[in-house]
Every structure is written in C-alpha cells, then in structure tokens.
Amino acid sequence: MQYLENMLQTVKDSNPHEQEFHQAVEEVLTSLTPILKENDVYQHNAIVERLVEPERQIMFRVPWLDDKGNVQVNRGFRIEFSSSLGPYKGGLRFHPSVNLSVVKFLGFEQVLKNALTGLPLGGAKGGADFDPKGKSDHEIMRFCHSFMTELYRHIGAQTDVPAGDIGVGEREIGYLFGQYKRITNQYNGVLTGKPTLLGGSSLRVEATGYGIAYFLSAMLDAKNDSLKGKRCLVSGAGNVALYLMEKLSQFDAIILTCSDSKGTLYCEDGLDVELIKHLKKEQGAALRDYLNEHPQAEYIPVSQYPKDGHQVWHFNGDIALPCATQNEITKKDAQALVDNGCKIVCEGANMPTTAEAHAIFQKHDVYLGPSKAANAGGVATSQFEMAQNASLQTWRPQQVDEKLQQVMKNIFDRVSATAKRYSSEDDLSLGANIAGFERVAQAMLKQGVV
Ligand SMILES: NC(=O)C1=CN([C@@H]2O[C@H](COP(=O)(O)OP(=O)(O)OC[C@H]3O[C@@H](n4cnc5c(N)ncnc54)[C@H](O)[C@@H]3O)[C@@H](O)[C@H]2O)C=CC1
Ligand SMILES: O=C(O)CCC(=O)C(=O)O
C-alpha cells in the first residue's frame, strides 16, 4: 500500500540511524494494509502518523561515583510512547547496547503488546547504557539512585510505571523505589517488579517465562498437539529463559540448550533446569560450571559459534525459543533451523528475529509466536501488581497464576482470530499487529486529536 510505504520512508527520514526502530515499525506497518483498506477512518485521522511518533522522549545524564571515587557518566532514557489505553508502562534496560533506537523500538512494541493484554496500559520503555556486569552492589545502588533522581519527576503510579528488563531485576527495582520514595515521600505502585516485601506481586519474577510457556501451549493446542516430549532450543539464561525452562519442564518438554553472553550449554538428553537456576540465581556462576556436575553435557564458547550466527540455533530441535535479546536469530540461524526440521518458533525476547530470518520462517511455513503476544505475561502481571498496590491487597500466587493463564489464552485467541479474519490463522505476527493496532487506534479515535 503506497500510503504505508510513504509512512515508513517518513519514519526513516525523520529518525535517521535508528535501525532497530525502523525494523520494528516496518514489521508492523507491512501487516496493516488489510485493516487500513477496510476502513479509511484510520487514514483520515492520521492514526499511523501519530502511532509512530512517541508522545514524549526523555534523555538525561546519569552521573555516579564508582568504588574508587571516580565520577562516571551514563545516558538515561525514558520513551513515553503512548498513553491512549492507560498510564505509560514498560521496563527499564541497563545494558551497554542501549541507545535511542533500541529504547524506541522497545517502546513501540510495548504499545501494541500492552494493547493485546486487554488491560488498561499505555506503552513505554527506558533504560541506560550502563553495564551492570562487574559492578559492586554499592555501585549498582548509586547508579540506580542517580537514575531515579532525574526519572522521578516524569513518572507516577497513574502516569508512567516502569519495571525491569535486561540488567534490571528485583534488586535494581528495590534501589530505584527507595530513591523515588525518599524524593517524593510516597509509598505507592510507581514501579512494578518490586520485591514482594515492598509491595511486589507474587509470580512477577516468573510471569514472563511462564506466560511464554502458556502461549506456546495454546499454539500447540490449536494443532491438537502438546509440549510433552518436545525438544526445545532455548537461548538466554536470564529471568525470562530460566522460568520458561522451569515451566516447559513441568509440561514434560525436554530442554536441550540455553546460553549466556559467554557461550551455549547443550545436552542431548535434556538439561537439569534446577541446577541451571541454582547456578545463575544463587551463585551468579557461568554456564560452563554446569559441566562440573554433568560432564556429559557440551559447552560451546562464543569464539566457536558459526560466523554470523548463534550456536543454539544450529542444533536439532522441535521448537526454538529465543530469550536473550533483539536480532539474535539471523538469516543463517533461521536457515539452519529450517534445514534441521524445526517447525515452531516462539519468541521470548523482544524482536529476537531479524527481518531476513522472519522472511525465511514465512517462506517455510514455520509456525511463529511473535514476541509482542508471547511474552506479554510479564507486563500483564505488572498490571496485576498495580491493581494490588492501588487496592492495598496482596493476591496469592495461585490467584495470580490463574489470571496469567487466562490472559495468555485470551491473547492467543485474540491474535489467532484476527489472523483468521485477515489471512490465515497461523500468521500470528499479522494477527498480533492488527489486533494490537485496532485496540490502540480505537482508543485514539475516542480521544480526538491528542
Ligand atoms: N523481564 C521481563 O519481564 C521481560 C523481558 N523481555 C525480554 O526478554 C529478553 C531477556 O530479558 P531478561 O531475561 O529479563 O533479561 P536478563 O538480564 O535477566 O537476562 C538476559 C539474558 O540474555 C543474555 N543477553 C542479553 N543481551 C545479550 C547480548 N547482546 N548477547 C548475548 N546474550 C545476551 C544474557 O546473558 C542473559 O542470559 C529481553 O529481550 C527482554 O526485553 C520481554 C518481556 C518481559
Ligand atoms: O512489566 C513491565 O512493565 C514491562 C515488561 C517489559 O519490559 C516487556 O514486556 O518487554
């Protein structure tokens, strides 16, 4: 559609050098042709033009003192992308690769993801190019306090509610919350992913990983299949990957791989997920240390990965579950997966598949669960945390889990019904893009030109 092609060119021209943002926008816009053709109200009201322009973009200096007394400076970001459906909502990422393009792509995806949950949530993302690796606990605390010293003026329990993402877990959220409270004198639900002692929801830590397993189960259920005995290739060994592996094991799937920034672990008979969780969460150890207990497993360091590829995707498996970071499945990886007979991909990380890899999956009819649908269980549980904080309640883990399962089932049903309405019920990427867009667009139309 010429209108959408022009829109994409405008986005590229007015946001130069923001490759990840261009990629995320292009993936969504190419799906929207059928809904825009069906109803010209969206075009008349410049919905797409407004949707690709964040409502507010905040960039700030984060100065902090390291343990040697030296002043360090990082760059902080908060992209308040859309408040059409509710307060801005989305995580904070602390990683050296964070830049404007990365937080904008994440914010844009978050708008549509949050819409898919059916909950009253706008979309945002933020973070800093700070590398938590190798920093002491005091350095992490000073960095978090400095970050919040600027961020606090932009957020609020009914304005913008940040949470965690790569490099930001309960510890960081605790420090951020402490500084927010100190500055504002308010103890409220301004952040989610808090430790439970500070008002965090039970199961928020597990929710993204568990939610992906529930979404994948729904994908298989629709094919009269199940996870039992399925051989799964997982990447990452962080928050999302660990709890996804835990739930997959409970569903009797076999976990063949996981990885971190240093290498990949593989075991043909299946990995011992409890040990990996213990090593990563309790000991902060490297994946290589797994071999001390299970010498029959293999460890492949990054230096031995295929050129332009990630080792995980070069093993034989039934289902690929990328849970590390964006663009971690390259064209070469996608071809290897297809050649090895992998027919199902379910995205845990945000936008883990490059555009070229996506095209290969489409060409070979790979059944793909897109990240904005599959990993929405984390943000949905964050909304449960907001609801508990606002009503001064504490829900039991079982209550949260039941609600999480229901949300993931609803998302799958919404996405596959939309895909069916516009093309084929297996094109869940198209279904997710259109269903998310429709909900945000309808909310925008009701608010006039804002
Ligand atoms: N934490 C959450 O609730 C949610 C996270 N996500 C997404 O899931 C993915 C993983 O996030 P978390 O597990 O929370 O983070 P984490 O910080 O707990 O773990 C990240 C994992 O990915 C690996 N990793 C990160 N960047 C990498 C890189 N550039 N190259 C190689 N490996 C890399 C790390 O070694 C680690 O194993 C991210 O894409 C994040 O945006 C999506 C929805 C919610
Ligand atoms: O829990 C949240 O608010 C955000 C989770 C997140 O950052 C994501 O869904 O990518």
Automatic annotation (TrEMBL):
SUPFAM superfamilies: Aminoacid dehydrogenase-like, N-terminal domain, NAD(P)-binding Rossmann-fold domains. Residues 201-448 form the Glutamate/phenylalanine/leucine/valine/L-tryptophan dehydrogenase C-terminal domain. It catalyses: L-glutamate + NADP(+) + H2O = 2-oxoglutarate + NH4(+) + NADPH + H(+). Homohexamer. Keywords: Oxidoreductase. Belongs to the Glu/Leu/Phe/Val dehydrogenases family. SMART domains: ELFV_dehydrog. This is Glutamate dehydrogenase. Catalyzes the reversible oxidative deamination of glutamate to alpha-ketoglutarate and ammonia. NCBIfam families: PRK09414.1. It comes from the Bacteria.
